[in-house]
Specification:
Rossmann fold, Hnrnp arginine n-methyltransferase1, 18 helices, 7-stranded antiparallel sheet, alpha/beta, globular, 8-stranded mixed sheet, about 725 residues, 4 domains
């Protein structure tokens, strides 16, 4: 977090009395650990910046958690005082405070090249550890004049263009942006594999920064962060141990990918300007679950729907009979579960994955399912198969915690497992492995990301493994088989001489609600012959690793350009996924001979667009929430078509308890009946809009005091890393 140097020495007269009052009202925190003189001397010798940080934190009364209880006037004074104390220290060293773990992470990815190195403080500490780092700044040591004596190492003069010569080095960026986006220029010139960023980064930590760069954090531009998430994927995110109050400084490691990882939504003022008339209509989808053609609203909510749907043993029979699925899971579980591991199996169903974990060597497995009939049946089946170290837990995974609170007297009906024999294991509060099968037809539509990352952040120990964890989502333009394709009704101009083209008229569509049902715009199929051919090269639009992703960092808008590799009619998009683990692949591609057959795939209907080989297709997908197919909207046009993108139709949030609610998923998103209500804002929307307008005025009137305007919470992202890098978090 940057603290702006926006005051002159001494400050305003109005603020001085408040400073004195603050010192009297908020004494130094008694909880700050004392630093022994010998330890302090050692730290001072190795990392003097960290030593000064400890000193200021201990002795500045306004440092701790008092910001949340202050008035705006008090908070302004507090930030002003922090400016006065901290800015000279920051100018002497660097914008962010290095710690031993951050330096270890950087060393692991050496050799390094740094752009925007300032006076070279980070580089100097790394050099002392034997790290090969080339540090550059637009104002290098040679151009610093009298200030050159204050440099910590030899920082060469140079900017982003020098990166062309450093293909084999990892790029290190520490607080890269202030007045202009140096970081985005670095992205343009860097051709290497890794980028290591230090500072506040929305796409890494899933938290919002302060205005005016919200929600991207305050240390690099939104443009850079969108490009970073599009071309790289995170391997590691760790909090810096030393931070200013309410800052969320992290160190994050990003690896270049060969596919588009998606983009965060563009602010309105950064949207591409497209002139021309509207063309093809935007389509909407509806919520579904793996194997489901029904609306979730029929059961009131997704949780209720899911509980009801999977109570039918036929659905479990389809999963168990899917040989590709079962072989994949047995292999990846055997490869990742080690002897002695504590495991949790999410959505265990018949318990077969928990059994795989037990036979792979797990000491104990918690098998969670919210359908009591299925879970009790699974427990009996496990007993008949001589599995005695699996505990079946009835409930939702988000309500599950460890250790489980147990009564003094054991449940007489508890016959398996033997809790006394596993007394030490069941006292543990962290697990080694999370096993799950939470993928829907469209990958995310069974709330996989929300459910698994919740367990990951609460219960998975550092270095723990999620099985499986790596996924690719495909949204591919297709031509459908002519005998199986179903046109929109207004396109049927000759049905044995009968013409339905009049139904394209706006009046007809509204009067008879031709296309108001979200499910009208997509279809589900398990038929591999429905897709005649792909019109473009297969390439994932989104790739995620559950070890590092957060739900808030999934992109909500994808803008893609794809070149047609075949001529044909663009009837729609085929949506399917691939899951990767232990060198194996589980996929639902309709044309794959190894397709896992119990999953379906989705066709997002487009109405037909004639495409010639070599043409470029512009595509756009807007998503309200990935787990809710009702909120998906899509549009497409040939490159060069100047018509404007069709705006996604807003999905009104139903008022709880109203007749139009159509159910809720418990997270503030409506069920598939969301289109039935009026388009008016509810009270929450109006209050939120009024609050945003009020903040806009505050920022406009006092842009230099924007950090003082709003108290920020101290919620920090969880440290997380891919398993192969977990040792760096220690």
């Amino acid at each position: 977090m940057k603290v702006k140097a926006n005051r002159t020495d001494g400050g305003s007269k109005a603020i001085k009395p408040l400073r004195k009052k603050l010192r009297e009202s908020y004494p130094a925190s008694a909880s700050e650990p004392a630093v022994k003189e010998e330890d302090k001397a050692s730290v001072l010798a190795v990392n003097p910046f960290y030593a000064e940080y400890l000193h200021v934190k201990k002795n500045l009364p306004i440092w701790n958690d008092i910001f949340t209880t202050m008035s705006v006037e008090q908070r302004t004074a507090a930030w002003d005082e922090l400016d006065h104390v901290w800015n000279p220290i920051r100018d002497k060293y660097a914008w962010a405070i290095p710690d031993s773990r951050a330096l270890k992470i950087l060393k692991n990815f050496s050799p390094l090249v740094e752009v925007g190195g300032g006076k070279g403080y980070w580089a100097s500490l790394l050099e002392k550890q034997g790290v090969d780092i080339a540090s550059y700044d637009i104002r290098g040591k040679a151009q610093a004049g009298a200030d050159a004596a204050n440099f910590w190492t030899d920082v060469k003069t140079g900017g982003p263009t020098i990166l062309k010569r450093y293909v084999n080095r990892s790029l290190f960026l520490c607080y890269p942006d202030e007045d202009e986006s140096i970081a985005i220029q670095c992205m343009e010139h860097y051709r290497g594999e890794y980028i290591i960023h230090v500072g506040e980064l929305q796409v890494a930590d899933g938290t919002a920064g302060g205005a005016p760069q919200a929600p991207y954090g305050r240390t690099s531009s939104g443009e850079f962060q969108r490009e970073l998430s599009a071309s790289f994927h995170p391997l590691l995110v760790a909090n810096l141990k030393a931070r200013l109050p309410f800052s969320r400084d992290t160190i994050s490691v990003w690896k270049r990918t060969d596919y588009v990882d998606g983009r965060l939504p563009l602010p309105a003022d950064e949207e591409e300007e497209d002139d021309g008339e509207e063309g093809h209509s935007m389509s909407e989808g509806s919520e579904g679950s793996e194997g489901s053609d029904d609306d979730a609203s029929d059961a009131g909510s997704y949780a209720d729907f899911n509980n009801s749907y999977f109570a039918d043993f036929y659905e479990h029979e389809k999963m168990l009979a899917d040989k590709q699925r079962m072989s994949f899971y047995r292999s990846v579980i055997e490869d990742n579960v080690k002897k002695g591991d504590l495991v949790v199996d999410v959505g265990t169903g018949t318990g077969v994955l928990a059994a795989f974990a037990s036979r792979a060597g797990a000491s104990y497995t918690y098998a969670i399912d919210h359908n009591d009939n299925v879970a009790c049946c699974a427990e009996e089946v496990a007993k008949r198969n001589n599995i005695d170290n699996v505990e079946f837990v009835i409930g939702h995974s988000r309500e599950f915690s460890l250790p489980i609170k147990r009564g003094k007297h054991p449940d007489p009906d508890q016959t398996m497992p033997d809790l006394k024999r596993h007394a030490k294991l069941i006292k543990k509060s962290k697990v080694d492995v999370i096993v799950h099968e939470q993928m829907g037809d469209c990958l995310f539509d069974e709330d996989m990301v929300a459910n698994i990352t919740d367990l990951r952040d609460r219960l998975l120990k550092p270095g723990g493994v999620i099985v499986p964890s790596c996924y690719d989502l495909y949204v591919e333009p297709v031509q459908l088989d002519r005998k199986r394709a179903v046109p929109f009704i207004q396109q049927m101009t000759d049905v044995e001489g009968y013409d339905f083209s009049c139904m394209a008229e706006e009046g007809m569509r509204k009067q008879f609600q031709v296309d108001t049902n979200p499910g009208y715009h997509h279809l589900r199929s398990c038929d591999p012959n429905l897709v005649d051919k792909y019109l473009t090269e297969l390439k994932p639009v989104l790739s995620v690793d559950l070890h590092t992703i957060t739900e808030s960092t999934l992109p909500l808008q994808l803008k893609l350009k794809k070149k047609a590799t075949a001529s044909g009619t663009f009837d729609g998009y085929a949506v399917f996924f691939r899951c990767r683990g232990s060198g194996l692949t589980l996929e639902t591609d309709p044309h794959s001979s190894d397709r896992a057959c119990h999953w379906g795939y989705r066709i997002l209907r487009c109405g037909g667009l004639e495409v010639q080989k070599g043409a470029t297709i512009d595509m756009r997908l807007d998503v309200g929430r990935w787990a809710d197919l009702n909120s998906w909207n899509w549009d497409q046009k040939l490159h060069g078509d100047k018509r404007a993108w069709k705006e996604p139709r807003a999905m009104p949030v139903p008022v709880e308890g109203s007749d139009e609610s159509g159910g809720s998923d418990g997270l503030g998103h409506g069920g598939s009946g969301g289109n039935n209500g009026d388009d008016e804002e509810d009270d929450h929307d109006r209050q939120q809009r009024a609050r945003e307008a009020e903040l806009d005025v505050q920022y406009a009137e006092a842009p230099d005091k924007q950090w003082a305007s709003i108290p920020r919470t101290e919620r920090l992202p969880c440290d997380r890393a891919a398993p192969c890098l977990a040792h760096l978090l220690e």
